Structures are given as structure tokens and as C-alpha cells.
Amino acid sequence: MLPNIEYSLSYSAPTGIERDALSALALNPDARWHERMDHALFVVTALHEGIRVGLGIVHNSVTAPTQAPRPMELGGMFVHPAYRRLGIRQYMAESRLTYALSMGGTPITVIDNRNQASWGYYERSSRWAREREYTGYFTGLPMTIWVSTESSWHRTGMGLTPLVPAQPNTVLPQGLNRAEPLGFGPDQGNPVPA
């Protein structure tokens, strides 16, 4: 029988006991980890019988050399080994991507090129496009930046109509015709190359 997993969502940086408990899930809660936590905008936590078994964050402490405007990094995702292959990572990944897109940011993720499982996922996914490779500042290892293909920045660079971000608690006007392309604002006359 599969365990009953519950999810907790937070829209602020964790502090105190909660931060300590979340840090215990990380493989190496070093200074960079705490910097990400300091700048967390969204945290999704997976719980089994009240015990934290998974964590994913969205933060704006981006050090990767991305060209994306308003980057929101989907970083710091961990699932306890005993709870892997239960769909927890997929749920948390989808929650983080939805949040970043809904806030109008450009979702990015940075993958260590040695992480074959993650690399394979992003390479096969139509929801992510490789932006660039670089040498990690903290690790000195090859890393790859992936950008969401659903982000306005990527869609504009590909000649597609940007999606309208759905800000939380925003009610769209009645009769909005979503099929019509949106016009560019005065500062958005040129598409940004992806």
C-alpha cells in the first residue's frame, strides 16, 4: 500500500525550527543552501504522517549566468530515498513551475551535468529548453541552465505569443478572448532571443 503523502505550501522563507527541519532533508546544507532559503519565494514540503519527506523551493538568489529576465530558480529539491518513485518529485516540480509562471517570472533550473537522472528528464521534456552550459561558480563543475518553454521570455524568443501570467487572487475580466494575441507594451517591442 502506498503511503498517504500530504503537501504543505509556503510563500515565504522558512525560519527557526521549520528551516532546521527542512535543512535536514538536504544532502549538504551549506552556505549556498542557506542563501537559497533566505531568498525562498515558495516552498513545497511533502509530509508522511507529519514527518517531512520531501522539499522543493523556488528562489530568486540566482547565481547562474542566465540571460532570462526575472529568473526564478526551481532549486533545492530533495526527496528522502525511502519515498522515491511515488510521484512526490513530480508533484513538487509541477507545483514549483506553476508558482513561478503564475508570478510572471522566468522559471529556470540548473542541473549538474553529472546528474544523469535529472539531465535525462530535462533533455526529454518539452517543457524545458537548454539555455546554456557553464562552469559552476561554487563547484567548478559543468552545469546546464534549463529555461521553461512556457515562460513568456522563451515563447517570445521562439516567435510565439506569450502566455498571460495568472497572478494569485486575480480575477480575469469576463469575456476575455484568449485566442487574440496580446500586444507588446512600450518597453517590449523587440523579442528577446532564447
From TrEMBL:
Pfam families: Acetyltransf_1
Chain positions covered by the region annotation Disordered: 174-194
InterPro entries in the cross-refs: Acyl_CoA_acyltransferase, GNAT_dom
Ranges of residues in domain N-acetyltransferase: 1-148
SUPFAM superfamilies: Acyl-CoA N-acyltransferases (Nat) (SSF55729)
Protein name (record): GNAT superfamily N-acetyltransferase
Organism: Paeniglutamicibacter sulfureus
